[in-house]
Each structure stands twice: as C-alpha cells, then as structure tokens.
Specification:
The structure is a single chain. The protein contains 16 helices and 20 strands. By secondary structure, the protein is α/β, with parallel strands linked by helices. It folds into three domains: 186 residues, FAD/NAD(P)-binding domain (3-Layer(bba) Sandwich), CATH 3.50.50.60; 113 residues, FAD/NAD(P)-binding domain, CATH 3.50.50; 107 residues, Enolase-like, domain 1 (2-Layer Sandwich). Helix 1 runs parallel beside helix 10, helix 3 runs antiparallel to helix 4 and helix 3 packs across helix 8. It starts with 5 loop residues before the first strand and ends with a helix.
Length: 479
C-alpha cells in the first residue's frame, strides 16, 4: 500500500448516522482531527428509513384523528387521507434519499468524510474499501468509535428470502400502500406501521406472539392502542406466530399461523426486534466475535478490548435502542475521548460528564400511535421486580379542562410510579392524544430526583394537558 493510501487522524468514527455525527462533532470541537467512514447515506437509518419517514407517515394520521373530533373541524376532515401528498411529504422529510445536506453539514463542522466500508484490522487501525474500490488504511492516534447501529432482525423461517419480506426499511419507504399487509410484532415498529398503513388504505393484520401490544410498557398502554387499531379496522390477533409462508407465482403471500389459521396478503412486515450491525466490521481482529452486541462500560469504552481506545456508541452496544439515547451517548463518548486525549482523568460520578447514566435510569420513549404513548423510567412491573417500595398514582387525562379543549371526547391515562421511601418519581407513563410533549417534564423529574413535595410547586398552566401533573400530585399527597 502506498503512503498516500495511509492516513492518520486523532479519531476514526465508523458510521455516519446521528450517533457517529455527534461523536465526530464533539471530538472536532475538542480540537481532534476526525474522519467518519460511511458505506451508505450520511444521516443513517433515522433520517431515511426510521424516525423521519415514519413520523412523516404518522403525523397526518394523528392530526386527522384529533381534528375529526373537534367541533367545527370534523366535516372538513372527513374522507380518506391524500395518500399521494402524504408519501410526497415522507419523501421530502427523507431528503428524497439523498444525503447532500448531511454531507454539507459534516464539511461545515470540519469533519472529514470517507465513503466506503470500514473494518478494524488491528489496534487503532481501520481498513476502508472505498466506494471507488480504492483501499485506504486509517490510523487513529487516540480512538476508534464504532457507531454502526442496528438492523431489523428476521426470523429463521424456511424460504424467507423468497418471501421478499418487509423490514422497517421497506415499511417506511414503500411507494404505495399494499392492499393487504400482515405485520408480525407487537413492539413500537409494529404498532406504528399498523397505525400508518391502515389509515393510508391497507387492510392490516397485526400478529402478536404475546398477549398484548407494547409488552414492555404499562399494560393499559397496549390495551388502549389495541382498541383504537381495531376501531380503525385493523385485525389484531394475540398469542400467534407465523410458522410458514410462501409467495405464489402471482406475487400473493400465503401465511400459516401457529394456531392453524391461514392468511393471504400482498406484503408481510417482520417487526420482531433488532440485531447489531457488527458482523462485518473486523471485530475478530481485536479479539471480539463478529455479529455480537458490543459490551461497554458507562464511558462507552468496549470492555473486552484493552487500552481504552475502542468505543461502541448507539444501538450497537444494546444499552438503549433509541436515536436520542444514541446521541446522548455520543456526547458522553466525545467528552471521554477528548479528556483521555488531553491526559485528563474521567469524572465518572453518577451524573458526571463522562458517565452514560441515563441509559439505565431514565430512558424516554414515544410511540406515535393513536393514542400516543409516552413513557420514561420504571414501569410498575419493573419497579416491583427490583424490590422497590412504590406508590402508583393514576389519573384519567380526559377529566382535565385542557384535554377537553384538545378534543371533547379525549380519552387517556397518566401514571406515576413513586419511590415510597425517597418520595421521588421513578417512572411515568402517559397515553392519549398529544402526550408526547409531557415526556420531557417527567424525564427532568426523574433524572433530577425532584422530591414530590417540590414538584407540587411547579405550577402547570391552565387549561393545558400538563395540568395532569397537578392532579397526579394531589392524589400522591393523600397517600
């Protein structure tokens, strides 16, 4: 290899999604030369096949559901959605699957981009097969950050390749609604895509192996989403899985379920979980197993590799599979890399700048269904599993004046999980139209460990849905 094909930087980042971009932004801001290696589109799954396109599909659905129940607006929103306009907006929000703007941002931030597939080949060394086929060898003075994310997991179903199944990528980028769509999976992707495509004209059948939707959340969340999906016309079935499927010469899918039932469909979406994108990034060169999730400590340093030079940030470390949590980790990792490059010690106190604490104590998440679901911290089940003594406070959101202004038939529930001994909130769940905007206040309450008695003095404006906090605290004060 010629010397011009060997390049040295302070930091090498593999993966230019939101996580890799944020790591690079932090290290460049700290004065460290940084290169980002990306084999696909700069901006990652979130920009093109996940967060942005899925919310562009869902927003019209949710807005129409709200408007259809507001006096004076309801006649104006009758009839089907303009599918062509919704999909055009989805395309716009995804940058028409072009990354020119993202690339320009990298340049403006002083971050160098190398397009190609990067693999570890030794300590602080990465080999890149560039998009033009020319190999480039990279060396890092200080750190390599693996920000390769995750991909949709597929079941070990016989002949699955011939099915041409959808994953979250196809579900968010499809050019038209399928006539009949079978969705396998009860989690966030499954219920969001069921909500979107049912409203856009597909006949959706949602299959859940468990006894309810959104099994990791409070049970009432899944129950309310199930009820609304069925009201919208979706066929929601519990306690079943797919045992066999085939695509006919004519393109139709024939699906056999574990209870013996058979379905005919045009497309099938598997939304059964995520797998790490780590199978082809050279992990064996540093003593790790290809295809595994990468275990890190709270500084995002890969624990099985000595020398404190290899980091795994975002989905690939399996700590918290959300874009916002990955970006949070990126801020921590960037600070850690900069501190070590300067020869400084790390502040790994519980909420210190070099410790990724929020991955375990206060992970917020929103499910953009009708109704919305927003949660952070512990559920009742999780709190009881840890042996925590808790008080559980529930409040019907539809009893609030602010909620009735939102829509007269508002239906929703809020729950706080309170540590009985410390008198602080350790978990919160909100279900109902517009509740996503309640989540940050709950996240602050949990991470700040704000005593319930102090929260009593945080006065919500009237008439808003945030007044639910006052009603919850009133009930809590009587415990």
């Amino acid at each position: 290899m010629t010397t011009e094909n060997i390049r040295t930087y302070d930091v090498i980042v593999i993966g230019a999604g939101p996580v890799g971009e944020n790591v690079a932004e932090r290290t460049v801001a700290a004065g460290l030369s940084t290169v980002v290696v990306e084999s696909e589109l700069v901006g990652g799954d979130c920009s093109y096949w996940a967060c942005e396109p899925s919310k562009a599909l869902l927003r019209p659905v949710l807005f129409r559901a709200d408007a259809a129940h507001v006096p004076g607006l309801d006649p104006a929103v009758e009839g089907p959605l303009n599918v062509e306009a919704v999909l055009a907006h989805r395309d716009h929000m995804s940058g028409d699957w072009k990354d020119d703007g993202q690339v320009e941002w990298l340049k403006s931030a002083g971050i160098e981009l190398l397009r190609g597939h990067g693999r570890l080949v030794g300590e602080r060394e990465v080999s890149v097969k560039t998009s033009d086929g020319e190999p480039v060898h990279l060396r890092a003075r200080h750190a390599v950050a693996l920000c390769t994310g995750s991909r949709a997991a597929l079941p070990g179903l016989h002949g699955i390749e011939e099915l041409r199944p959808w994953t979250s990528r196809e579900a968010t980028s499809a050019r038209k609604p399928p006539g009949r769509l079978v969705i396998v999976g009860a989690g966030v992707v499954g219920v969001e895509m069921a909500t979107a495509w049912q409203a856009l004209g597909s006949q959706v059948t949602l299959l859940a192996r468990q006894g309810g939707l959104l099994p990791r959340m409070e049970p009432f969340a899944g129950e309310m989403v199930t009820e609304r999906l069925r009201e919208a016309g979706a066929d929601v079935r519990f306690g079943v899985s797919v045992t066999a499927a085939e695509r006919t010469d004519g393109g139709e899918l024939r699906v056999t379920l574990s209870n013996g039932a058979r379905l005919a469909a045009d497309e099938i979406l598997f939304a059964i979980g995520r797998a790490p994108r780590s199978e082809d990034i050279g992990l064996a060169a540093v003593g790790l197993a290809a295809g595994d999730w990468l275990t890190t400590d709270d500084s995002l340093t890969v624990t099985a590799v000595p020398g404190n030079w290899l980091y795994a940030v975002g989905d690939v470390n399996h700590r918290a599979l959300y874009t916002h949590q990955g970006k949070y980790q990126a801020r921590i990792a960037g600070a850690v890399i900069a501190a070590r490059a300067r020869g400084e010690g790390l502040d790994t106190s519980r909420w210190g700048p070099h410790r990724s604490t929020a991955d375990t104590e206060a992970v917020p998440g929103v499910v953009f269904t009708d109704p919305e679901v927003a949660s952070v911290g512990l559920t009742v089940r999780e709190a009881e599993r840890t042996g925590l003594a808790i008080d559980v406070i529930d409040q019907e959101i539809g009893e609030l004046a602010g909620a009735l202004q939102y829509r007269p038939d508002y239906r929703g529930t809020a729950r706080l999980v309170i540590d009985r001994d410390r008198r602080t909130v350790v978990g919160a769940t909100f279900v109902g139209p517009g509740v996503a905007e309640l989540l940050y206040s709950a996240t602050v309450a949990i991470t700040g460990e704000v005593p319930v008695d102090r929260l009593w003095h945080a006065v919500p404006a009237f008439p808003t849905i945030s007044e639910v906090w006052l009603r919850l605290l009133e009930k809590g004060a009587r415990r």
